[in-house]
Specification:
CATH architecture of the largest domain: Orthogonal Bundle
Helix content: 55-70%
Strand order of the largest sheet: 1-3-2
Strand content: 5-15%
CATH topology of the largest domain: Arc Repressor Mutant, subunit A
Number of domains: 2
Number of helices: 6
CATH class of the largest domain: Mainly Alpha
Order of helices and strands: HHHHEHHEE
Number of strands: 3
Low-confidence stretches: none
CATH superfamily of the largest domain: Winged helix-like DNA-binding domain superfamily/Winged helix DNA-binding domain
Distance between the termini: 21 Å
Mean pLDDT: 84
């Protein structure tokens, strides 16, 4: 049985907070600071980069894809962006180490895939 690391971390934080309360330490709701707010999560899904993050969540980038294929996936989701905008979003996710890219030997362009 595989346990969810997020659940385990939440349980640990709750137990530490409870222990601090029993010891008489001032209680600060640290778990609220450790989790992203819903506003931040919504912001992460906006724009071209957010659309690409959505593709990552859906597993559409589990196998290497070129820019035109990714553009088509985004169009199917109703997200219409220019080629340079999507290219920059992909590059940003490569820099954040969400994706990795490599040159295909036969083609000129890059292929992008989820970093594992």
């Amino acid at each position: 049985m595989k346990k969810d690391p997020q659940k385990i971390a939440t349980q640990i934080i709750e137990l530490v907070s409870e222990l601090a309360a029993l010891a008489g330490a001032p209680t600060a709701n640290r778990s609220a600071r450790l989790h992203k707010s819903t506003a931040t999560e919504k912001k992460d899904m906006s724009g071209a980069t957010g659309g690409i993050r959505l593709l990552v969540k859906e597993g559409k980038l589990d196998s290497p894809k070129q820019l035109p294929e990714i553009m088509e996936f985004l169009r199917q989701e109703g997200r219409h962006y220019s080629r340079p905008t999507i290219s920059m979003g992909l590059l940003n996710l490569v820099r954040e180490r969400v994706l990795t890219r490599f040159r295909d030997k036969g083609d000129k362009g890059w292929k992008y895939v989820i970093r594992k």
